Task: inverse folding
């Protein structure tokens, strides 16, 4: 009887941390913090005049503006649907850390009836408060994920802090996934000799045919398709709004918001293979 009592009263073993119990790798989810009314930073703007009709390939080469260019409307932050899909799918396989420039809150765009409730619930969670991108140590994370962020052209494409993280991930061949406008965030990663760290890679992103439909096309701070080609990488795209994903080594890119799910699925496959 005493033996039974001793067994019942014996202290339980210490409970391991959640991350240890689940054995999940860590993933850094980087999002834009650009919001309405925030001025654009980076290189001076130049005028780009879209052609009247779509030829085989729209002419979008940068040319000096013959007249002063008025400030463009600010680019908003993060696609609500793409972020929802990135977060829900990747959280099943990773311990996620959301980070934005300055740790600012995320300005979601394209919120609708299908994702409004999820966004509201997300904002109530403690993990909805982003960490400061400036304080992130890339060595602590196994994967990097950037959802469709129209605002990435405003802040992430010029972020020196994100550039250091991307350089580390490329050196270590860690999985990277960027979707839609989030691919613009990769443009910040240059080496000391000014070459792009993704030179020689194959990737996709918003095509010119997709961008040209935007009312602010003439004042976009960066055209991903042109940047990729000019930086010595290979760019491919499918029809506008079509699902298109490119996997090259440890880099996964999705053409647009519709490509979010298959892009993140490829990221999960990459991590499982590793």
Result:
């Amino acid at each position: 009887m005493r033996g039974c009592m001793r067994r019942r009263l014996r202290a339980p073993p210490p409970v391991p941390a959640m991350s240890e119990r689940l054995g999940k790798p860590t993933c850094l989810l980087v999002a834009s913090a650009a919001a309405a009314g925030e001025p654009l930073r980076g290189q001076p703007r130049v005028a780009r005049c879209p052609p009247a009709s779509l030829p085989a390939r729209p002419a979008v080469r940068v040319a000096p503006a013959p007249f002063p260019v008025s400030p463009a409307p600010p680019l908003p932050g993060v696609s609500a649907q793409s972020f929802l899909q990135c977060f829900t799918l990747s959280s099943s396989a990773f311990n996620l850390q959301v980070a934005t420039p300055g740790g600012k809150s995320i300005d979601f765009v394209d919120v609708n009836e299908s994702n409004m409730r999820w966004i509201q619930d997300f904002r109530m969670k403690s993990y909805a408060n982003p960490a400061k991108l400036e304080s992130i140590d890339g060595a602590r994370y196994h994967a990097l994920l950037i959802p469709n962020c129209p605002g990435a052209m405003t802040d992430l494409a010029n972020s020196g802090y994100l550039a250091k993280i991307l350089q580390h991930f490329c050196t270590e061949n860690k999985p990277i996934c960027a979707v839609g406008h989030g691919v613009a965030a990769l443009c910040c990663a240059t080496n000391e000799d000014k070459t792009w760290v993704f030179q020689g890679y194959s990737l996709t992103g918003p095509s010119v045919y997709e961008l040209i439909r935007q009312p602010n096309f003439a004042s976009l701070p960066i055209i991903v398709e042109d940047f990729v080609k000019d930086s010595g990488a290979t760019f491919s795209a499918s029809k506008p709004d079509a699902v298109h994903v490119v996997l090259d080594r440890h880099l996964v890119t999705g053409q647009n918001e519709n490509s979010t799910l298959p892009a993140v699925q490829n990221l999960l496959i990459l991590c499982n293979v590793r």
In short: The longest helix spans residues 260-273. The CA atoms of residues 49 and 161 lie 32 Å apart. Confidence is low (pLDDT under 50) at residues 4-21, 37-55, 58-72. DSSP finds eight helices and eleven strands in the chain.
